[in-house]
Specification:
The chain has helices at about 10-20, 60-75, 90-100, 110-125, 140-145, 160-170, 190-200, 225, 260-270, 270-275, 280-295, 295-320, 340-350, 380-400, and strands spanning about 30, 35-40, 45, 105-110, 130-135, 150-155, 175-180, 205-210, 240-245, 255, 325, 330-340, 355, 360, 370-375. With about 400 residues, the chain is of the alpha/beta class. The chain folds into two domains: about 30-55 and about 295-400, Aspartate Aminotransferase, domain 1; about 60-295, Aspartate Aminotransferase, domain 2, CATH 3.40.640.
């Protein structure tokens, strides 16, 4: 029996609302091409949208390791890691990840989002206190909500506010959660200062280094190493998390830290206990990727040059426009446009010129801060970056809104 005026009938109108606000998203079918190029809906495009920061996703050694893993272990893992899914390949990867980030122990998960959304509730719960940067990734936010701990949200990178919140909290167990490299702005958290606050207030610091692992620090060991906080100086007050589908070029995630802390997560994290383990062929590929990350420094050196080339090239382009290039030294380079429709128009202008740069809109970013999220990779060449700069210069000349003239004072 069909109910009159069912709420299920509202979805077409709600989708139309997304269209009016320029917030409807669209998937595109892609096939990898050489270098940083993709075939997108039948069109070959130069892509500045991938988080494959070191260009390892298509590396022949990583592919060969995945194929060898499939031959040795099959395609699936068959069960949860707590049953029969913890293969020798996955176990070896955990040991190598722990050694790589110079922490006592690591735990390998099938996906990054599932990792954060589950380890946070495993660490704190009702009656505990959780402190979250306002620009944290959605998986950390969801984990915080699922935990039922009291959530204290502090303005982005406002450590004075965080310090006051920590000091005022009566909770015995306190957890500070933050991106290490913020995914939409590309800036790096002040990890030494965060760790000092956690030491002072008996808190645990959970770092999501999805966009720093493989790129920052000596040999790409991540944000902790970037600040000289890995190895002997690593604190038991820090739990390090990183994804393996970005700079590592494969899939999955891991957490690393004090042995007892990781053991607790193994016992209590629902997405680890109740989900089928990542296939061992992926662990095999990741072990090859980890070797390349550690030994091929030229990839990070080249990426650093591409970042500098883009920033230097865009400075004259942005003069006379309202666009702003975010203060980022990482592979994530946000070009703030402002209105949703204008960001989409710039994205379309780039597409017409054979470039794919995604327009990021609310709720991923705040209202009025729609942007192009330019993701650079070691797979990009100087000519690729120059092509993007020239295309943006053409679009800026034709479409970008001029900055408003300053108001003239009236006597």
């Amino acid at each position: 029996m069909t109910t009159a005026n069912s709420w299920l009938d509202e979805f077409p109108a709600r989708i139309a609302e997304l269209d009016r606000a320029h917030l409807r998203r669209k998937r595109r079918e892609v096939t990898p091409h050489e270098g940083a190029r993709l075939n997108v809906d039948g069109q070959t495009m130069l892509a500045f949208c991938s988080n494959d920061y070191l260009g390892l996703a298509g590396h022949s050694q990583v592919i060969a390791a995945a194929c060898a893993g499939a031959r040795a272990f099959g395609v699936g893992s068959g069960a949860s890691p707590m049953v029969s899914g913890h293969s020798v390949a996955n176990a070896a990867l955990e040991r190598e990840l722990a050694a790589f980030v110079q922490l006592p122990r690591a735990l390998y998960f099938y996906a990054g989002y599932a990792t954060n959304s589950s380890i946070v509730p495993a660490l704190v719960g009702e009656g505990d206190a959780l402190f979250s940067d306002a620009l944290n990734h959605a998986c950390l936010i969801d984990g915080a909500r699922l935990s039922r701990a009291k959530i204290h949200r502090y303005a982005h990178a406002d450590l004075a506010a965080l310090s006051a919140q920590l000091a005022q909290s009566p909770a015995r167990r306190k957890l500070v959660i933050t991106d290490a490299v913020f995914s939409m702005d590309g800036d790096i958290a002040d990890i030494p200062a965060l760790l000092a606050l956690c030491e002072r207030h008996d808190a645990l610091l959970l770092l999501d280094d999805a966009h720093g692992f493989g790129v920052l620090g000596p040999q790409g060991r991540g944000s902790l190493a970037h600040f000289g906080l890995a190895g002997p100086s690593a604190s038991r007050r820090v739990l390090y998390m990183a994804t393996l589908g970005k700079a590592a070029g494969v899939a999955g995630a891991f957490v690393a830290g004090d042995d007892a802390l990781v053991e607790w997560l193994l016992q209590k994290t629902r997405s680890y206990t109740y989900a089928t383990a990542a296939p061992p062929l992926l662990a095999s590929a990741l072990r090859a990727s980890l070797t390349l990350i550690e030994t091929e420094q030229w990839r990070r050196d080249h990426l650093t040059r591409m970042i500098a080339r883009l920033r230097d090239g865009l400075r004259p382009v942005l003069r006379g426009t309202s666009w702003q290039l975010g203060e980022s030294t990482t592979a994530v380079q946000p070009l703030l446009i402002g209105p949703n429709d204008e960001a989409l128009a710039v994205m379309e202008g780039l597409r017409e010129r054979g470039l794919w740069v995604p327009a990021i809109r609310p709720p991923t970013v705040a209202e009025g801060t729609a942007r192009l999220r330019i993701a650079l990779s070691a797979a990009h060449t100087e000519a690729d970056v120059d092509h993007l700069i020239e295309a943006l210069a053409q679009i800026a000349s034709a479409h970008a809104r001029l900055s408003p003239e300053p108001e003239t004072a009236v006597a």
